[in-house]
Amino acid sequence: MKKYQILPSLLSANFAALGKEVDAVLAAGADILHLDVMDNHYVPNLTVGPLVCEALRRHGVKAPIDVHLMTKPVDHLIIEFAKAGASHITFHPEASEHVDRSLALIRKHECKAGLALNPATPLHCLDYVMDKLDIILVMSVNPGFGGQHFIPSSLDKIRQIRKLIDASQYPIHLIVDGGIKTSNIREVADAGADMFVAGSAIFHHHDYAAVIAEMRKKLEE
Predict the structure, then answer these.
(1) Catalytic: which of 39, 66, 134, 177?
(2) Taking the CA atoms of the chain, what radius of gyration do you get in angstroms?
(3) Got the DSSP string for 139-178?
(4) Mutual angle of helices 99-108 and 75-84, in 10-degree steps
């Protein structure tokens, strides 16, 4: 059976008690921590920098940290987040002057490399870089804010990307980020995703373990 992974988005966590939140969600069964980095330039919001990633490592986090750069430019932050302890770094092709170079920079710093595609981003940006990708992240909401509703047309894009991955035969993970909850995670998996970012669905629930367990139950159906 396909290995599915759940990535709680720390954007929806209580930042006044971030260490406790991280400990709790990992104890509840999360696989990977997802860190949304926004610059109030590429997207209309401002969140966290490399110091937060470094603080999580100093706190004792051993789990992978998946850094999603919603910033422009990206190359300097790739280096800084790699130094701060990121495991995966994903960026948007529109935010890099040289996508191939930015992907190579991520791998040079021994992180898994990914591209994030907005709802209206066409797939041709993948044409010449599949061999340099570990991750393709599909935004199923417009980037910038948590708590948005899943855009249904994202399912067609997920299906198309799954076909591209399978045809390439490269071991690329397909992540979906935005509006993921217990009621739609199975449908998103059926479309081809194997990793799921969930923010408010987990952190706005009183029992993180119950939500993650319900998500896994849906994925196993």
Answers:
(1) 177
(2) 16
(3) ESS-TT-SSPPP-TTHHHHHHHHHHHHHHHT---EEEEES
(4) 20
For the record, the structure tokens of 98 come out as 């040289």
- Long-range pairs of 72-76 with CB within 8 A, sequence gap ≥ 24: 72/39, 72/41, 72/42, 73/97, 74/102, 75/101, 75/102, 75/105
pLDDT in tens, the chain (221 residues): 469 999 999 999 999 999 999 999 999 999 999 999 999 999 999 999 999 999 999 999 999 999 999 999 999 999 999 999 999 999 999 999 999 999 999 999 999 999 999 999 999 999 999 999 999 999 999 988 877 899 999 999 999 999 999 999 999 999 999 999 999 999 999 999 999 999 999 999 999 999 999 999 999 98
Main-chain phi, psi angles of 85, to 5 degrees: 115, 15
d(CA 151, CA 169): 28
Q: Check if 207 is active-site.
A: no
| Beta carbons of 98 and 167 less than 8 angstroms apart | no
Q: What is the pTM of this model?
A: 0.96
> Is 66 a residue of the active site?
no
Domains and CATH numbers, the chain: 5-220 (3.20.20.70)
Tokens of 199: 């923010």
One-letter amino acid identity for 183? S
31, 36, 75, 134: the active-site residue: 36
